[in-house]
Amino acid sequence: MNRPQSEKLFQRACQVMPGGVSSPVRAFRSVGGNPVYFARAQGSRFEDVDGNRYSDFCMSWGPLVLGHAHPAVIEAVRTAAVDGLSYGACCEAEVQLAERVLQAFPLMEQVRFVSSGTEAVMTALRLARGATGRPKILKFEGGYHGHSDSLLVKAGSGLATFGTSSSLGVPAAFAEQTVVCPLDDEAALEAVFAQLGPELAAAVVEPLPGNNGLLEQRPEWLRTLRRLCTAHGTLLIFDEVISGFRMRFGGYGDLVQVPADIVTLGKVIGGGMPVGALAGPRDLMQQLAPVGGVYQAGTLSGNPISLAAGIATMDLLADGTAYTRLEVLGQRLDATLSDHAATRPWLRWRRAGSLIWFHLADVAVPRRADTIDDGAIARLNAIHGPMLDRGIYLPPSAYEVFFLSTAHSEAQVVELADNLVQLADLT
Ligand SMILES: *Cc1c(COP(=O)(O)O)cnc(C)c1O
């Protein structure tokens, strides 16, 4: 497949933008080759600037649960745009989206809107620190919560450790306030709370970790985390930026019946436009400015166009039929893969609703970051380019999950499975 226009654009981009990109993984560094430049997208399909067409299984990394450019979402955006792009003042859409979000999260009473998932989690941490007066936070290895300083932190050596920065530019003094623990390990949790419980303002976790493989946790592990947070007065933050409204109309925490104190949202609630949110009980949320002393603000927060896209998306998801449809597609994918797997012990994957992660190695699919198999990652990365040449766009890193949308067809998921297996056979 030829992509001369994409190649030219990337050369130009590299002159004027670091790595040629606005977000690192888009540069295709882990999968090789150069990025594709897209001109338009509709439903499950992408078209690049050279006129090549692709089935998209990245779907903007999660927001597009209804597919690209859903007509009702586009219409809502068009209608809103005519009335002004930004007010920097209050609008009815804020109230409407807040009401919809809270309807779906029965334990939450108030919402603050921001413009990205990063901001949502950053604000949730500040709120937790402000409310508890404690300095430290607990995160988990392999959890991604955006790129704020406190969270660009990885584990040091040992079971549960003070974090070390995973990026230049994060002072050690910040990183030390973040404690990092492995997933899927109750003993490590008990140990970290026994040692540091009184200093922990919050534990932040993706209840369905989906940014470093799909490291779906055992509900018992989540319940242990909940119990320890309650016992030590530590707030539990469920980062549902990916999982919120992805599996069902609401959160993953409610699905597995583990309640959080604060929930962070993004991706789906913006329907493809920049929106993030945090939600919590009234007494906690009232500690945010202007009522309380925890400061947070945003020029474009509660942007009317973003909210319009979010409301339209919520309204299409509310009756649950979209999730039934996604499950049909997911089961079709499972069935196709199971046939192939009968003769291929290395063909392993994990699926949670419309999220899929392949771990191409003859070992159990891991639930914690340190047991991910390097060979599995290399194998999946190696087929990214060949898949692209067959018209299938995958997330450009084997650590990332694939996303299905209601716009995909059963034929497309079968095509995904067949091609992936054929190409993996050759590696
Ligand atoms: C995507 C993501 C974020 C960051 O959201 P941005 O909008 O990219 O800032 C945070 N947490 C989780 C779980 C995510 O998946």
Describe this structure in words.
The structure is a single chain. With 427 residues, the protein is of the alpha/beta class. The chain folds into two domains: 4-69 and 320-425, Aspartate Aminotransferase, domain 1; 71-317, 3-Layer(aba) Sandwich (Aspartate Aminotransferase, domain 2). 37% of the residues lie in helices and 15% in strands. Strands 4-13-12-11-10-5-9-7 form an eight-stranded mixed β-sheet, sandwiched between helices. The protein is globular, with a radius of gyration of 21 Å. The mean pLDDT is 97. Pyridoxal-5'-phosphate binds next to helix 4.
Compose a concise summary of this entry.
Helices cover 37% and strands 15% of the residues. It is an alpha/beta fold. Residues 116-118, 121, 144-146, 206, 211, 239, 241-242, 266, 276 line the site of pyridoxal-5'-phosphate.
The CATH superfamily label of the largest domain reads Type I PLP-dependent aspartate aminotransferase-like (Major domain)
CATH architecture of the largest domain: 3-Layer(aba) Sandwich
Strand content: 15-25%
Relative helix content: 25-40%
- Overall body shape: globular
The total count of strands amounts to 17
CATH topology label of the largest domain: Aspartate Aminotransferase, domain 2
